[in-house]
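Quick entry, no commentary yet.
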Amino acid sequence: MPVLRIHTNVARSKIPATLPKELCEAIAKSLGRGVDSCNCVINPDQLVSWGGNDGIEPCAQVVLLVFGGLGPKENIGHAKAITDKLVDSLGMAPTKIVIHFQDAKDFEVGFNGTTVQELLK
């Protein structure tokens, strides 16, 4: 159940409506999982200061939360998939995207009124 959260200073009006779906597809492919359980949330219009600047340049802070599938080598592929999609769709420089990878435990995430740990039993 990958969850991708993107905080960006890009205006909502400049974000294609299809981008969340496209990001889900990209990350599902990178993780080798089905897209049906992937979640993507884009928080546009954020006030950002990057490196002490005024935040005019498009930039993003990204969190990818996953149960397994992360590691030193794997994260390089995930970073490329996310970065390429944001660069292509929003025109931001790769140097203005930071990604935090979180490997969650199944008991740390709830879904459908219980925890994922219980659902996997």
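second:
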Amino acid sequence: MAAIKLTTSFCEGAKAEAGRQVAFPDRDVRGLELRVSGEGRKSWSFRYRTRLGRQGRVTLGAYSRDFGLSAARAEARRTQVIVDAGGDPAEQRRTARVVAQTEHVRTFGDLAEAYFGATEKGRYRPKRATSLRNERAVYRVHIERALGRLTLETVSRRTVKAALERMLDTGVTSQAVKAQAVIRQMLSYAVDIERLPYNPIGVMAPVIAENARSRVYSDQELRDIWTGVGAPEQLAIPDEIAAGRRDGNRVAVGPAMRLALRLSFLLLQRRCEVLGMALDELDLERGLWSIPAARMKSKRAHVVPLPPHAVATIREAIELNDGLQTSLVFPSRVDARRPMHGSSMNHALAQVLAARGIQDGTIHDIRRTGSTLMTSERLGISPFIRSKILGHNDAGGGAKVSATHYDANSYLPEKRRALERWNELLAEIVSKGEGSAT
């Protein structure tokens, strides 16, 4: 809109169309605008261009009798003086807000609180809620006690490295790697809010190189996990881990999650595939589970033969949903139209592992353990059939060609027999607990 000579009477009567905001530039003071929202709210703003050519706009205040046209023009002229001197009013305001919000950040614990708050609100490197929950857990369990009370000036590469090495000494290797990443991000935030001049671990080498995981559960661990998942009420989280938990020592794993975890053992499919299982994917009479391509990591449809124990487990899960309007086998208890979140399965298994004293285990390690046992001497299943069961695109070598060009033969009989043999071995392991899973 072209600039106009604003008057008090014009400002008092200025309106905007419903649902639209309009700005009325002042001809007498360049950059000053009266802005009127679709709801009728009025405010003063000032547009400017810095010496470096960056355009900016700042809000001067809400329109009122005390802050009318004359006062707004005077404030706009004062703001122009800042611009003429080489300043950027919007940047100065942002800095002032940051200082006000972070002047209390004196210790590493203060920094952690400020970092999580800024990240949650999207002011600093926004992240998914699950990522933030994981970072908070790493901080609470592994970082807070070691660094939380240190003043920021005393947090050095040496102190961080010492804390991480103590973690390595206790055997939590993967958590040490994650802790280093969280600490680095927090210290980068400290630089961003000008509480530190530089990140002391910005170029610090990884405390340990992250290699592809090779974790395979032993027979005893398989038995402990399986029985623990089946009866979590008989387990207890150790006191040193339970401190501060909402559930205390209790292992909180609901009936549906128990069944989902057991299906992960029985079928060796990925957690998102298990938790997203839909009723229309199942043919329980024929013992088949057909996962559409859209739900597969490989983006190819996948058919999983269901051994008898898996069919029974799925039927039990469906019965738990009696009365719910849902098309899913494992619906969220918050919204039955959506499946349980993958992080809930991680959390459930983590509780069981902690109660059983099993270190450095994950959901995916269940799949890896079953995969390893399939091709071991104990079962002797071919890598190709194992690959077909796991839903991989290929089994390596010439198998890729076969999978690409001859997938009409989905090897259902071979896959069914292999999964049945795996279920039989698993039943033997969890009932006797003898031998090794490698």
